[in-house]
Amino acid sequence: MASPRDEMVAAVKEYASKTYCYSHGWDVVIECWSDQEIADCIANATTINGAIRKVREVVLVQYSHRLEIEATAF
């Protein structure tokens, strides 16, 4: 039986998969983040929605940085 933390990690990965192509930066979660990195990010989340919100905060910062880099690429 999976722990609540494992269930939240799986839910974050499912959300990232569903929004992979059209949501701001969730592709990085699928392609680059390990389960442990997701678990570390969601730290004290008590709900799946809370876990997704915690990851979203980090993803949006990374996505913003990614856009800055892409804007300077020639």
Description:
The chain is mainly α. It has one domain (4-72). It is built from four helices and no strands. The protein has helices at 4-18, 26-32, 35-42, 48-72. The protein is elongated. The mean pLDDT is 93.
Question: In short, what is this structure?
Answer:
The chain is mainly α and 74 residues long.
Keywords:
single chain; 74 residues; mainly alpha; 4 helices
Give the SSE map:
Layout: H1 4-18, H2 26-32, H3 35-42, H4 48-72
Helix pairs in contact: 1-2, 1-3, 1-4
Order of helices and strands: HHHH
Work out the number of β strands.
0
Envelope shape: elongated
**Strand residue content:** under 5%
Main sheet record: none
Span between N and C termini?
A: 50 Å
Task: Please give the count of helices.
Answer: 4
Radius of gyration of CA atoms, rounded to a whole number:
13 Å
User: Roughly how much helix do the residues carry, as a percent range?
Assistant: over 70%
Query: What is the count of distinct domains?
Result: 1
- Poorly predicted spans: none
* Class from helix and strand fractions: mainly alpha
Average pLDDT metric: 93
